[in-house]
Design brief:
This protein is of the alpha/beta class. The chain contains 16 helices and 16 strands. The strands form three sheets. An eight-stranded mixed sheet has the order 3-2-1-4-13-14-15-16, covered by helices on one side. A four-stranded parallel sheet has the order 5-6-7-8. Helix 4 links the parallel strand 6 and strand 7. Helix 2 packs across helix 16, helix 3 crosses helix 4 and helix 3 crosses helix 16. The longest helix is centred in the last third of the chain and has 32 residues. The chain is globular and about 80 Å long.
């Protein structure tokens, strides 16, 4: 049965800067058939199922191009700390104690519920036990780009580089035909993988056409460490390994020089901007305006909820736009439509999914998000695109579809038991609170002994 989603306004993203009024998106099973005037659609498909959204803006589903979904269970666990203290004294001990299939399943389910409720229809994840992440996404009907984690140390998921790669490739072979799931190679960062491993990742990326999803130039410390250990800048190390190309998704990138930006643009590297996490951890500020002006494809990510502290991509876009204007001193820098592109088609392009998602076009997957603008905060609606970026909030997300399947209807999740998700979060709160008390107690004992 054909579906007609009739919205007050439709922002298809492609063609650029277009807003359709009194049109509808025609959905045939999992695909968009087209965007046409509503009267014409009703005449063409009189038996079609009609969804009326008269006060809404309909947009492509948002794409969160960098996150660590299970870390929603660590939301607010350790705040207002230096990045390395945050990791070394809090996050890593908690992960060492608890990370396993149960932690990943419960954390991912909480994250997916949050993201669907905020209009995200696809996320790019980097975490351990990716097979569990996939199971949760398929149960929920969520689209995901799943990272094959690679780090030069033993973890609960794998013991060494051969184990990471072999387990990851077996998972890829098993799941590569699944239409909602795609894959990246996800080495943690240049400072946690050796040159030998970088070279191996480069070969695997070329052989399988895997995007490479990696934290790069997140802090000034990373550059100093690379110079001390390798006598090379991190970008030079990646270049020597053959990784500085159009398959690289470089996340954070707060420590860029003008020459670096030219190099990135020339190589076709994608940058994933996570402004709120960068600000909260005082990591630095990604030079968004300069990257955009140089023609670099920039997508947006929330990072994990342990360092943000939410998975609200719309708020991330607002922060990115305002920060770019404030830093550059140019009110015209990074306009509202460019932000919408960063939340949709740019993320799809970075992940190699722009032939399937990221815009509302005939032949693409019906991944859609509707926001109800009938709210005091978004009236009057003088300019649809700017109002979406500068005034709307995720509280106004009412309906979400992935591959034509409705995952949020009138603000209610249709594939996830929210009560069960909340009960699971309470359980993990108790476990993690116990661990934090243990860590504090051990710290006091060590201080008294010294």
């Amino acid at each position: 049965l054909m579906k007609l989603i009739h919205a007050g306004h439709i922002i298809p993203v492609r063609p650029a800067n277009v807003v359709w009024s009194d049109h509808c998106v025609v959905v045939d099973k999992d695909l968009v058939k087209g965007i046409i005037p509503f009267a014409e659609a009703v005449e063409t498909w009189p038996e079609a199922e009609i969804t009326e959204l008269p006060d809404h803006i309909l947009i492509p589903g948002l794409i969160n191009t960098h996150t660590h979904s299970p870390m929603t269970l660590l939301r607010g666990y350790a705040d207002d700390l230096d990045l390395h203290v945050w990791l070394k004294d809090h996050i890593w001990p908690a992960e060492k104690k608890f990370v396993g299939p149960e932690f990943v399943a419960d954390g991912t389910r909480l994250a997916v519920a949050e993201m669907i409720r905020s209009g995200v229809t696809c996320f790019n994840d980097m975490y351990f036990f990716p097979e569990t992440t996939i199971d949760v996404c398929l149960d929920a009907g969520m689209r995901a780009s799943v990272g094959i984690p690679i780090i030069d140390m033993e973890t609960a998921w794998a013991s060494d580089i051969n184990s990471y790669v072999e387990k990851g490739l077996r998972l890829y072979d098993r799941m590569k035909a699944e239409p909602l799931i795609s894959f990246t190679l996800s080495p943690h960062a240049p400072y946690t993988v050796s040159d030998e491993i970088l070279n191996r990742i480069s070969v695997l990326s070329a052989e399988h056409n895997f995007p490479v999803h990696m934290h790069v130039l997140e802090t000034e410390w990373e550059i100093k460490q690379s110079q001390q250990q390798h006598n090379l800048h991190p970008l030079t190390r990646l270049e020597h390994a053959g990784l500085l190309d159009s398959r690289l998704l470089a996340v954070h990138m707060t420590q860029l020089s003008a020459d670096d930006i030219v190099k990135l643009a020339s190589a076709g590297v994608h940058v994933v901007h996570c402004p709120q996490s960068n600000l909260k951890l005082a990591s630095g500020i990604c030079p968004l305006t300069a990257l955009v002006e140089a023609g670099v494809n920039v997508a947006l990510g929330t990072d994990g909820a342990a360092s943000n502290n939410d998975l609200d991509l719309l708020a991330e876009g607002q922060t990115a736009a305002l920060l770019a204007k404030g830093i550059s001193g140019d009110a015209e820098a990074v306009n509202a439509f460019e932000v919408i592109e960063m939340m949709t088609i740019n993320g799809a392009r970075a992940l190699g999914l722009d032939d399937r998602v990221g815009s509302i076009e005939a032949g693409k997957q019906a991944d859609l998000c509707a926001l109800n603008m009938r709210s005091p905060e978004t009236q009057p609606l003088h300019h649809v695109i700017s109002q979406l970026v500068y005034a709307a909030s995720t509280r106004q997300v009412s309906d979400v579809w992935v591959a034509g399947k409705q995952l949020l209807e009138g603000g209610e999740l249709t594939t996830i038991d929210l009560d069960a998700v909340m009960e699971s979060a309470r359980k993990w709160h108790s476990r993690l609170a116990w661990l934090e008390r243990q860590l504090v107690s051990e710290g006091k004992e060590q201080q008294s002994e010294s």
